[in-house]
Design goal:
Distance between the termini: 47 Å
Structural class: alpha+beta
CATH topology: Alpha-D-Glucose-1,6-Bisphosphate, Chain A, domain 4
Helix content: 25-40%
Radius of gyration: 15 Å
Order of helices and strands: EHEEEEEEH
Low-confidence stretches: none
CATH architecture: 2-Layer Sandwich
Shape: globular
Number of helices: 2
Strand content: 35-45%
Strand order of the largest sheet: 1-7-6-5-4-3-2
CATH superfamily: START domain
Mean pLDDT: 95
């Protein structure tokens, strides 16, 4: 099993806005600048799936596998003989809201898919987290005007 996790605590953000942005899968390209599109039909519930199309590569089907409403969710991307799980978590702390993203790759060909996909996904997490928080702050500012 291969695991990479990244956490950062942000003050001045509201967890409900982050959760709203996470569950609005069709608008992920607003804060994922490496995506052509992301589409999901139906509700954000375990078992539903979405299509995610990174720039320059073909779209992948990703299934929601675990959801703790308002707190965290995990999705799974199957590749040939491998599964990549991506967990997004919100946690209130005394210094702000801690966001954590954890990638886990399992399966007999994980060494290949780590090189082809997972390392790049892990490398983009800090940038995407900052973009997500910037968008959350912008939305909060607009609603407080």
């Amino acid at each position: 099993m291969w695991i990479r996790s990244y956490s950062k605590t942000f003050d001045t953000i509201k967890r409900d806005i982050i959760w709203q942005l996470w569950t609005d899968v069709n608008n992920w390209p607003q804060w994922h600048d490496d995506l052509d599109y992301c589409t999901m039909e139906g509700p954000f519930v375990v078992g539903n799936h979405f299509m995610l199309k990174p720039k320059g590569v073909r779209a992948v089907k990703i299934t929601l596998t675990k959801i703790e409403e308002g707190r965290k969710f995990t999705d799974c991307t199957p590749f040939f003989w491998v599964k990549m799980y991506d967990t997004h978590e919100l946690e209130e702390t005394s210094t702000g809201v801690r966001l954590t993203n954890t990638l886990v790759v399992t399966g007999p060909l994980k060494f290949l898919w780590i090189k082809l996909v997972a390392q790049n996904v892990a490398a983009t997490v800090p940038h995407e987290m900052e973009a997500l928080v910037a968008l959350a702050r912008e939305k909060e500012r607009k609603t407080s005007l």
